[in-house]
Amino acid sequence: MKLLMGFIILLVALVAVTGCTQPASTSAQNTTTAPVTEVTTVSTLVPTTVATMAPVTTTTTKVANVTAPAVNVTTAVVTTVAPVNVTPTATPASGVTTIHITRAGFTPQTDIVLPGTGVSFVNNDNVSLSVMTIGNNTGMFNSGAIIPGAAFPYTFSQNSGTIVYQLSNNANVTGTIIVTSQSNGNHSS
């Protein structure tokens, strides 16, 4: 009796483990995978679209019933930040400002400084250059030859005014320094 009970339990366990009590029916089905395009819009300062591909399983039968691939489109609200126009308030330079010189011109061509400000003319060319004042301020300064890479310093007095200068060997290359005690105007350094 114990032997018969053991045999039945073993038989039931075997059927349970294999999972089948009868042969599987053969059904003719084809499984295909169609790509799906999913577009996701991401909210950033600059709108960016990211496209991803995800497979979708579609089942067809021998009778040729075909299900078209699904298309998923997700759109998020895009927030655009408008540019802010900021107008800088230019103030005269104080301390030391630099003016770069080449045979082609001065950078900056016009500079506004406070009285007592030092200006350094730096030769950024590959030949020696000379800077001198002209017009109403002729003789205020004359740098003499400034070798390439060297600088000529000059400190402006406490008086306000406009000083025009030029390259000594080219009267067409001029620059202007405006000495003012006011806090307005344009400044470049």
What does this structure look like?
This protein is mostly beta strands and 189 residues long. The protein has one helix and eleven strands; from the N terminus they run αβββββββββββ. It has two domains: 50 residues, no CATH class; 84 residues, Immunoglobulin-like (Sandwich). The strands form three sheets. Strands 5-4-7-9 form a four-stranded mixed β-sheet, with no helix packed on it. The chain has a four-stranded mixed β-sheet with strand order 6-11-10-8, with no helix packed on it. A three-stranded mixed β-sheet has the order 2-1-3, with no helix packed on it. The protein is rod-shaped and about 130 Å long. The N and C termini lie far apart (108 Å).
Helix content: under 10%
CATH topology of the largest domain: Immunoglobulin-like
The total number of structural domains is 2
The CATH homologous superfamily of the largest domain is called: Cupredoxins -  blue copper proteins
Helix/sheet category: mainly beta
Rounded mean pLDDT is 73
Strand percentage lies at 35-45%
The residue ranges in which pLDDT falls below 50 over 5 or more consecutive positions are: 39-52, 185-189
Radius of gyration: 43 Å
Order of helices and strands: HEEEEEEEEEEE
Strand order of the largest sheet: 5-4-7-9
Distance between the termini: 108 Å
* Count of alpha and pi helical runs: 1
Major beta-sheet overview: 4 strands, mixed
Number of strands: 11
- Overall 3D form: rod-shaped
CATH class of the largest domain: Mainly Beta
